[in-house]
Design brief:
The protein is of the alpha+beta class. It has three domains: about 130 residues, no CATH class; about 120 residues, no CATH class; about 120 residues, Sandwich (Immunoglobulin-like), CATH 2.60.40. The chain is built from eight helices and 27 strands. A nine-stranded antiparallel sheet has the order 4-3-2-1-6-7-8-9-5, covered by helices on one side. A nine-stranded antiparallel sheet has the order 13-12-11-10-15-16-17-18-14. Strands 22-21-20-19-24-25-26-27-23 form a nine-stranded antiparallel sheet, covered by helices on one side. A hairpin with a 4-residue loop joins strand 10 and strand 11.
Amino acid sequence: MRGIRSFVVLLVVALGLGAYLYFVESKREPGDGKKNEKVFAGVESDKIERVTVKSEKGETATVEKKSGTWHLTQPVAADADPGELSGITTNLSTLEVQRVVDEQATDFKQYGLDPPRVEVAFKAGDRERRLLMGQKTPSGTDLYAKLPDKPRVFLISSYLDTTFNRTPFDLRDKSVLKVERDKIDAVEITTPERSIRIAKAGGDWRLKAPVDARADSNAVEGVVGRINTAQMKAIASADAGDLTSYGLDKPAIAIHIGSGSSQAGLLIGKTAADGTYYAKDLSRPMVFTLESSLVDELKKPADEYRVKDIFDARAFNTTRVEADRAGQTVAFEKAGDKWKQVAPAAKDADAARVDGLLTALTGTRATGFVEKTTALDKPELAVTLKYDEGKKSERVAFGRQGTDAFARRDGDAGAAKIDVATLDSVLKSLDALK
């Protein structure tokens, strides 16, 4: 009985507490919870027009917004990084006091505020404001901070240190080249050993040097994207007169980007002490460094930019296949979902076997490329495919030389090396249609 009585008492208490919470909470106004105090009440991020930051390193940078664009004005004149400034202005406008440490503090040194470790000043409208930042709290979750005209010390979130503690280099635009990616229509990458030239015509990329051949759009767009988004790692010299010490008098790599009538150029020199590479934008006097991974990508051989698929057609969009072998021609055409042999004699064809031949042909890929080979002087096989409702056509010749097999597309210089087993599979699929 005692156990039952205790249970009943606890149940009554729980129900009473639940009822109290229900009635109290249901009558509470939405948003009635206490909000943190804004450090800079009434400040809107888009109204901030000037920011000055003194970093932990003692470097001071001033950035001003002109016609909607941020520019670094001190210690040098340069374009500013819009992402960095967006982070600073947004966080200034939303900055909250996490907790007040001391309303009437007198010893600011204990908080790292005498002198302050980081200072951020900004102008919004006709009013200037300033934030002083000290060291992190022992837990590392917050930073001590204060306003210059008040004794109160308060806490702000520690993650803001990476937002506000910025050097002039951090705040500047670190783009290596200024080009509009969607307007780039030519790329040239030159080293002392070779020159690769790629151009866009009709929306498609094509390799122009060292050979004239189809270019792999994904590979080209990849390197264009890397160049377009490349960032400086550091500035070696703001105005380098002599380029010899950076290896830029005889660059290891020279890049030229075409964008309509505009041209941009980048020189890459020798390796810096930290493993980066010295580089120079041809339109600016400074020398800066680049990460080594970008340089490694720019050293890729021309073959890396070539299309590896021997045929552009796919099995599903091919409407005619014609094969010339040993002086004999056999051709198949698709009508609806049925295949018919149209040469040398008209008859129904096994659709599965034609699809098997097309799968073998369109799956053929280059394992490498050669400038010349005698294997194709008298091809073992030549195949012509029509695709995209007959609007496009391509012809490829196949041949062997010793233990190697090769393929050459009409219109492409040189030849592609292919697996011998691939050529054997194509011939076997063709024989199955006899």
